Amino acid sequence: MPRNYRKQLGPRQNRNYDPVYLERAIAAVRRGTLSIRTASEQYAIPYTTLHRWVNNNNLLAYGRPPALENLEEEKLVKVLLICAEWGFPMKSFDIRYIVQQYLNKSGKREKRFSDNLPGLDWFKSFMARHPNLTIKFAENTKRVRAAVTYEVVETYFANLKQSLKDVPSANVLNYDETNFADDPGAVKVVVKRGIKHAHRIMDTSKSSTSVMFAISGDGNLLPPYVVYKAKHLYPGWTEGGFPNSRYNRTVSGWFDANTFEDWFVTTALPYFRNLDGPKLIIGDNLCSHLTISVIQECEKNNIRFVLLPPNSTHLLQPLDVAYFRPFKRSWRSILEKWKLKNRGVLPKTVFPTLLKESIEAVGAKSTANILAGFKACGIVPFNPDTVLQKMVRLRPQEGQERVMETSWTEAIVSHLSDLRSGSNDAAPKKREKINCAIRTEHCSI
After folding, report:
1. Do 247 and 306 lie in a common domain?
2. Are 269 and 328 in the same domain?
3. Are residues 131 and 255 in the same domain?
């Protein structure tokens, strides 16, 4: 067990030699260049130890054997990997509980475990024996995203391959809108030990501003397109921003058909008109992003429009995969510095300046992040396996089938599938209005 062991001094000395010297001594004896006695003296290895290793006699490991045999642990490791691939990785207690159930059903009684439940020491030893397993923080993924199947993505790449034919990397454009909140987020601070809550004085709000970004396959960033939540647009809201940026407003603060069409005409088209050959634009499948005018402009300018499968942007969209996260980190840092010096919420007159500073703060890393995003999404260079190897097939592969035949039942596999896709029983049903009469004590449906 992995405890703080201290070697006891005494007449008996076990394994006080380097394993490398043991290998050299064995090789020398088997080659016939040295006798066992001479090799023992030359490499400082006990004669009996070297004799056992040369003749392959009684080569048992020190200490008590593990509770599970090697074959049993190998099957357990394969099952754990399958569960993690399905999106349900096990915690340390889950693994220990599985071992307890296995021992109980097998009729085995392990005296080192309390009620056959392994302790944390066993778990640490188990992890040390299997270096292909590791411990990481798990990120929660919504079921709608997990429901994106291997087959759906495979079909998407089959269509994308046709769309990318004869299209240079510079002619590939990925767009997406994101929002910038008026809150730099929580940070770790130093306070007195024992207090329950740590507070810092900073004015924040729930307001946010939408910005459309577009990146090209050769690492370029197009000017951002900002949409404010307002009925009117004022000149002060457009000053001090990133060069060639565009600004607009909607009542909701999000992109609608008009604002998207304006972005396409004023930002995407000017970029494409300076390029030769076919062009490709990749984006999400929001219905508000496609209008008749946009489709007509695509036909006139030899632009191919590719829509991503629903709920797949975390896998297939370069902006989401590699660009937005470092950029948002830069935004929160710059916003925090501004709020420490100023009172109140972030004015719209200041937003363009902070957005420009955030873009410039990413600096030289921007191109590298963009290229890494297109590569991770299998677009530039085209390589579907980059994404497909991260996904789960609905049908188990050959190696998984053998494990399931010996360790899993069809009910468990079906249960994992149900957990992954979820049930729609709790979905909200169509609501009915309740008509309430004035000055009455009851309501009727």
Report:
1. yes
2. yes
3. no
Q: What angle do CA 128, 133, 138 make, to 5 degrees?
A: 125
Distance CA 265, CA 283 (A): 16
Whether the pTM exceeds 0.85: the reply is: no
Q: Which two tokens stand for residue 317?
A: 């969209």
| pLDDT digits (tens), the chain, 445 positions | 456 666 555 555 566 778 888 889 999 999 999 999 999 999 988 888 888 888 887 666 666 778 888 888 888 888 888 777 766 788 888 888 888 888 888 888 888 899 989 999 899 989 998 999 998 887 776 666 666 888 889 999 999 999 999 999 999 999 999 999 999 988 888 988 888 888 888 888 888 999 999 999 999 999 999 999 999 999 999 999 999 999 999 999 999 889 999 999 999 999 999 899 999 999 987 666 677 888 889 999 999 989 898 888 889 999 999 999 999 999 999 999 999 999 889 999 999 999 999 999 998 789 999 999 999 999 999 999 999 988 766 455 554 444 444 443 343 454 455 555 555 555 566 666 666 554 444 444 4
Which domain, by its residues, includes 314?
Answer: 150-388
Residues 212, 255: contact at Cβ < 8 Å?
A: yes
CATH number for 1: 1.10.10.60
Q: Please state, in angstroms and rounded to a whole number, the distance separating the CA atoms of residues 38 and 50.
A: 11
